[in-house]
Amino acid sequence: MPAPAQRLIAHLDMDAFYASVELLRYPDLRGHAVVIGGGRRHQPEELPDGTRRYARLRDYAGRGVITTSTYEARALGVHSGMGVMKAAVLAPDAVLLPVDFDAYRHCSRLFKAAVRALAPLVEDRGIDEIYIDLTDLPGAQADAGRAAAQQLKDAVFTATGLTCSIGVTPNKLLSKLCSELDKPNGITLLGLEDIPTRIWPLAASKVNGIGPKASEKLAALGIHTIGDVAAAEPQFLIGHFGKSFGAWLHEASHGRDERPVVTFSEPRSISRETTFERDLHAVRDKAALGAIFTELCVQLAGDLARKGYASKTIGIKLRFDDFKSVTRDLTLPAHTMDARSIRRAAGECLKRVDLTRRLRLLGVRAGALAKLADLVAPRVSHTGGDAGDDADVSGTHALHEPRASYNLLLFDTDATSSR
DNA sequence: TCTGGGGTCCTAGGACCC
DNA sequence: TCTGGGGTCCTAGGACCC
After folding, report:
1. pTM as predicted
2. Is the torsion defined by CA of A301, A307, A308, A314 positive or negative?
3. Is the CB of A328 under 7 A from strand C?
4. How far is the CA of A95 from the C1' of B2 (A)?
5. pLDDT tens per residue, range A28-38
6. Please, are residues A330 and A349 in contact by the beta-carbon 8 Å criterion?
7. Which of A18, A57, A79, A380 is least enclosed, having the fewest CB within 10 Å?
8. Which of A46, A123, A129, A266 is catalytic?
9. Which residues pair with A23 in a beta bridge?
10. A283, exposed or middle or buried, with CB in 10 Å at 0-12, 13-18, 19+?
11. Which residues contact A260 (CB under 8 A, 6 or more apart)?
C-alpha cells in the first residue's frame, strides 16, 4: 500500500508589518528606530518646507503599548506589548507613530489576494500571517516548495512593496516555527529528518501554544528546549500538564501536527472594549461610564449588523485598577442584534459585579452567534394571514432541527429600558 | 511609568434532563 | 439512608495568539 503523499505547508509572515506599512508612506524614516502604538495625538506634522516633524517616544505620556517596531527599534530592546512609557526609557529618540488599522487592513487584503491568486488554499491567521497548503500545487513537490515560496514572496512584494518570511514544512506547527528562523525576508525549508538538529535546540517557548505560563512551568521542571520536551516521558508531561495539553506537548515536540489548512471558519464571538484614559469609578464617574458603556453596545450592534450576525449570549468584561479582570454573561431567550437589547443584557451582567474598585477597562461581547440569514431563512409573511402556510413552515422546522432560534429579537420594545 | 484590542479554545462546576 | 451515568447548556476564568 503506497504511503500517502507528505503534505507541503507554508507559513507566511509579513516582516514587522505595521511598521513596514508606515515606512511605505514615510520613506524618510527608513533605517530609523520607529515604533507604532500609543493612543492618538501624535500624527506627524507636515512642515511648510515639505519635511515632516515626528513625535518622539520621549514626548509621550499616557497608557498604551507598542504594537510593532522596526528592526532598528527592536535592536534597542523595544518590543511589541511593551508599555510606551517603558519603551521611552530605552529609546527616547525613536519615532512614535499612531496605529492606522485601515491602512494595515488594506495592505493585508492586497497581500492575501496576491497569494490566493497563486495558491488558493489559504488559512487566515490574523492581519499579517497566513498558512498555505502547497501539497497539490503543480511543481511544488519537486523542490520541497522553494520555488513556490519564492514566487509567493515576489507576488507579495509586487502587490504591496513589502517583504515577508516563509517557512515550508510538512505541517503548520513546523512551518510556523520555521518562518521565524530567517527573518526578515527569508525562506526556510525543513523536512522531518531535520527536527533533531534544527528544531530541538530551540526554546520551548518558540512553539505556538507554549506561552509564558507553560514555559515557566516547564523551566521549573528543568525543561528549556523543544528537545528537552521531546526527551521527557509522555506520562511525565501528562502528569504535570493534564491529559490533553501534556499529550499535545509530547506530539508537538516531535514535530507532529495533523491540523489541516482551514480556508473558512465562522466567528464565535464579536466584541468591543476600551481602556479609559484614567481609571473610572462606578459611582463618581457614573455618567461618563454609562456613556462609554452605551457607545460600546452601539458599536457592537453595528459590527453585528455589518457582518450579518445575531447573538444569543451577551457578556461584559471589566478590568480593575489592580489589573484583575472579571467577566459576566447572560444567555437570552432569543438572538439579538439590537443595541438597546444588548445594552440591557449587558446592564444585567454589570449588576452582578462588585464595583468598589475603580475600573480601567470595559468591554462588551456578543457570543453564541448565528448568521442572520439562517435566523430569518423561512419567510415570515403575515400579509395573507395564511395559518396553514405558517404551520407548515414551523412544522418543517421542528423536523429539521433548526440551527438557531427563529425568535430573533430585532427591536427593543421596552420603553423603560435603562440608558 | 506598567501592561491595547480583538479573538480562540479549554476546563470545570452546577443545573437539568433522560 | 443510599445511590447511577451520560449529555447538554450555562457561566466564569484563564492561557494563548496576533
Report:
1. 0.89
2. negative
3. yes
4. 21
5. 999 999 999 98
6. yes
7. A380
8. A129
9. none
10. exposed
11. A133
